[in-house]
Amino acid sequence: MPREFSRGRRIADLIQRELAILIQREMKDPRLGMVTINDAKVSRDLAFADVYFTVLGGNDAQGAEEVLNNAGGFLRTQLSKIMSTRTTPKLRFHYDATIENGARISKVITDALAEDASKRDGVEG
Asked: Are 46 and 85 in contact, with CB atoms under 8 Å apart?
């Protein structure tokens, strides 16, 4: 019977929480803006951590991704001071566009429903 939370998942959760704090307090790059860490996934061998983030306020997502990947070594060093593991995973940052995609899909659905309603009103009236 598999455990509810694997070691990798616990480490990923810790990385997500601590990175959110580190980025907020330690990163001073003006290109970064307001970053939210949405998820972290750690490889089975704990060598890599893929970190998914969003940027609030309409800032440049590619620029933020570049800044975070360039600061990966610094953030990894800071994480190693916090984590009690033998090694700290190498960080790879990825922009998470699911919120934007969800909003776009929601708008398309709303527009389609409004168009259907107007066609129905035109046929009935």
From this structure: yes
Residues 6+ apart with CB under 8 A from 8: 42, 43, 44, 46
Phi/psi of residue 77, nearest 5 degrees:
-60, -45
Q: What's the whole-model pTM score?
A: 0.78
Q: Alpha helix (H) ranges present in the chain?
A: 7-26, 61-70, 72-82, 98-124
Encode pLDDT of 73-98 as tens digits: 999 999 999 988 889 999 999 998 88
Q: Which domain holds residue 91?
A: 7-97
Task: Supply the CATH number for residue 79's domain.
Answer: 3.30.300.20
Is position 58 within any domain?
yes
